[in-house]
Design a protein that fits this description.
An eight-stranded parallel beta barrel has the order 1-2-3-4-5-6-7-8, surrounded by five helices. It has one domain: TIM Barrel. α2 packs across α3. The longest helix is centred in the N-terminal third of the chain and has 18 residues. The chain is built from nine helices and eight strands.
Length: 205
């Protein structure tokens, strides 16, 4: 499995910029791990964009993951998938994709993380940090205190899976979030809304 990156960009619906263009903007800015997230698209639409996005990511040496849709990830040769709490179980996805692909799972609580670990996830997307409009049916907001409590407990239990913070993260949040022990942070709007995207990525790094 490829080494996970610490900065993780997710494409978003509702942006004036198309998903493939968002992927390219992230790659140009220096991001090397991207998730194609098209909740509103049909499988046919998503497959078409995924093929284009995969070519862009390959050109930049960027890891390319697909949200939810395991069959599309397999078909286009994506590096892996990210599975939400209402999506296919991590263990089922692992059997379909095999050992070489990256599989991430969404978590909002400690038990979610434990279960994803039991099923063989490679990383956890833990959130949301704060309220965000990019996700429907939002789980309870964790805030900085929630992240700290969960990361402290994982250390006590000896659970070392990479945990990525997600959900409403801004540029001013990165430093304090990394201090909790998070492996990485994921974001959408923070990058898309930045006038100087390269500067933003360099600042967080």
């Amino acid at each position: 499995m490829a080494l996970l990156e610490r900065l993780y960009f997710l494409t978003m619906d509702g942006s004036p910029v198309g998903h493939a263009e968002q992927v390219e903007a992230a790659c140009v800015a220096g991001i090397r791990m991207v998730q194609l997230r098209m909740k509103l698209a049909s499988d046919e639409e998503m497959r078409e964009v995924a093929i284009a996005a995969k070519k862009i990511c390959d050109a930049y040496g960027c890891l390319f993951l697909i949200n939810d849709r395991v069959e599309i990830a397999a078909a286009v040769g994506a590096d892996g998938v990210h599975l939400g709490q209402q999506d296919m179980a991590v263990g089922v996805a692992r059997r379909r994709l095999g050992p070489g692909r990256i599989i991430g799972g969404t978590a909002n609580a400690l038990e979610d993380i434990r279960e994803h670990c039991r099923q063989g996830a490679d990383y956890i997307g833990l959130g949301p940090y704060r309220y965000t409009t990019t996700k429907k049916n939002l789980s309870p907001v964790l805030g900085l205190g929630g992240y700290q409590r969960i990361m402290d407990q994982l250390r006590r239990e000896g659970i070392t899976i990479p945990v990525v913070g997600i959900g409403g993260i801004g540029r001013e949040d990165a430093a304090v979030l990394f201090e909790t022990g998070l492996y990485g942070i994921a974001f959408s709007g923070m990058l898309l809304q930045a006038e100087d995207k390269v500067g933003l990525v360099n600042e967080i790094k």
